[in-house]
Amino acid sequence: MPDTCGICRDDLVDDVKTLDCAHAFHSGCIDSWTVRVARCPFCRAHVDGAGIVDHVRAGVIMDEDSIIEYIVANTVSHTDVVALVNKNNLSSVGLMRVVDSGCSGVDVMALICAGLFNVTDIVWIIFSEKISIDDISILLERGTITLNDLERIVSVYVSYFTKHNVASGIADAPTIRTPEWYAFLLEFLPMNEPHDAIPLVYSIIGLIGTRLA
Q1: Cα separation of 99 and 6, whole Å?
Q2: Does an H or E element contain 26, and which?
Q3: Rounded to the nearest 5°, which phi and psi values hold at 3?
Q4: What values do phi and psi take at 17, rounded to 5?
Q5: Across the strands, what pairs with 26?
Q6: Looking at the structure, do residues 27 and 69 belong to the same domain, yes or no?
Q7: What range does the domain containing 56 cover?
Q8: Residue 81, Cβ neighbours under 10 Å: how many?
Q9: Who's near 47: CB < 8 A, 6+ residues apart?
């Protein structure tokens, strides 16, 4: 065991905590560290301990920015996130900041199914490709979103493609939303264009067309 704490650099004389990875620190130092990042400062091994809800309850984390920073930096269960929202420690705006951060440690689909987002937020989450087409299909089955909600997303892309002349002929598509309309879109959408969202649009159009058929 080293003679000094790797965080404060003082001697390790007493109040020492040794992690599962065998690295040792002063208890106060490593506890303060893991409030922000639940990993060993040396080897990055995960540090088990109090979850974020316990930190908030104990008053260690108080402000929303710190809560968001912790969630983004660590793997936090969706049940803990739900608890934070229910206790008014995390606002709907703060929750969207977490989702927009693109952090992989939060199960966005589980949060949607827990009822934490309104339809407008869900549409934005889909638009931002934060969930898969299979997840979108599940949300349709549950009645969380409707075909009209998905059509809003498609309409945005159709307007973009038309405005920027990305898909020649798309402006001639029928105006009534029918399976034929979506088949028309699939014919004219330029799959070879370097636009990241096009595969998503194809999938959504295919899903809507199937439901309308």
Answers
A1: 33
A2: strand 24-26
A3: -85, -15
A4: -120, 125
A5: 16
A6: no
A7: 52-117
A8: 25
A9: 19, 20, 30, 34, 38, 39, 40
Query: What tokens were used for 28?
Result: 């106060």
For 187-211, how does the pLDDT look when each residue is reduced to its tens digit (9 = 90+)?
A: 655 554 545 556 777 788 778 877 7
By CB atoms closer than 10 A (0-12, 13-18, 19+), residue 145 is: buried
Cα distance between residue 37 and residue 40, in whole Å:
8
Long-range contacts of residues 143-147, Cβ cutoff 8 Å, at least 24 apart? 144/112, 144/113, 144/119, 145/119, 147/208, 147/211, 147/212
The structure tokens listed for 112 are 């949607």
Using one digit for the tens of pLDDT, what is the confidence trace for 144-183? 999 888 888 877 776 766 665 544 544 455 444 556 656 6
User: pTM above the 0.85 mark?
Assistant: no
How many other CB atoms are found less than 10 A from the CB of residue 201? 21
Neighbours of 148 (CB within 10 A): 10
Structurally, how many domains does the chain consist of? Answer: 3
56 and 45 belong to one structural domain: no
